Amino acid sequence: MTTVTTTVQESFSTYVDEKRQQAVGSPQLERIAADDPATTHTRVVELVRRDGGVVITGLIDPEHTSRIRKELQPAFDADVPDKSGFFPTTTRRATGLLGISDGCVDLATNKLWIDTANEILTSECRPWYGEKRAHFVSKPILAGTFGFQIGPGSRQQDLHRDDSDYHLPRGLDSCMLGMLVALTKTTEQNGATLVVPRSHLWGEERAPKNEEAIAVELEPGDGLIFGGNVFHAGGSNKTKDEIREVVGLFMCKGFMRPEENHWLAVPPEKAKRLSPQVQRLLGYGISPPAVGFYRYKDPMQVLFNVEDEETVQL
Questions:
Q1: What is the pTM of this model?
Q2: Beta pairing class for 232-233 and 128-129
Q3: Domain housing 190
Q4: What angle do CA 82, 86, 91 make, to 5 degrees?
Q5: Which residues of 91-104 are buried (b: 16+ CB within 10 A; e: fewer)?
Q6: How many CA atoms lie within 13 A of 243 on its CB side?
Q7: Would 6 be classed as within a structural domain?
Q8: pLDDT tens for each residue of 51-75
Q9: 218 and 88 together in one domain
């Protein structure tokens, strides 16, 4: 039975690869060099808005790449397999990267990345207060920071849009921007990220097909910047001994949080005396599918040992 299943999977993988080869004329993502004077944040923004994403070659140097790998390894070693099935059991993950890696802190403040995120995600409003008009500017904040080690045998993720977490009606500009940086060489064979170029322009009713996706191969230190409304997925690692290692930083609009900071006003040691209903009103729960998790767990479980019909299993 195992042999038959493996044969079917290999045949399907071959079919998809052939379809991708036939789609050479379809939209691609441009590759621009970080050290090219023409690579400004204005150019990056232009390409993200046109194609959905862009590859920045040489975004960080080899020393920076090695430092991040060394700092994240203990977190990868401590990870447990994903029970939800979204991540293959052969994938190891790290979260909260800015708390465990100074190299990731430096990456998060990379000027090209920050300037691009600010240009795409900054929000402005000009409300009236009586007959006086105010002007407020809200800059983006980190939505999530993740590291991944994708081992041999890892299956392909489903193609998805990251901003589906925020329940946005399609047609609006995305509220998110992502950046994946390769820590090891990533190829189509070892599971390079799949992207469907220009899928950020699609309507809500159009589903992505695997043959529409391209594998974005990266050298260590290269970065892929893409909108939260672009269909993408981690590829399948078809190698026998290669581990693909990447880090991902994701920004969201700065107003996408409560008006009041409830976690400071009612910290966990006080909130644990309240009912699960009140704890969730304060924002300790998860907004499905995944907004508000902690180490891929529902904080209600971690902080208050709450397991009920509203608990989100990740």
A1: 0.83
A2: unpaired
A3: 28-252
A4: 55
A5: bbbbbebeebbebb
A6: 13
A7: no
A8: 999 999 999 999 999 999 999 999 9
A9: yes
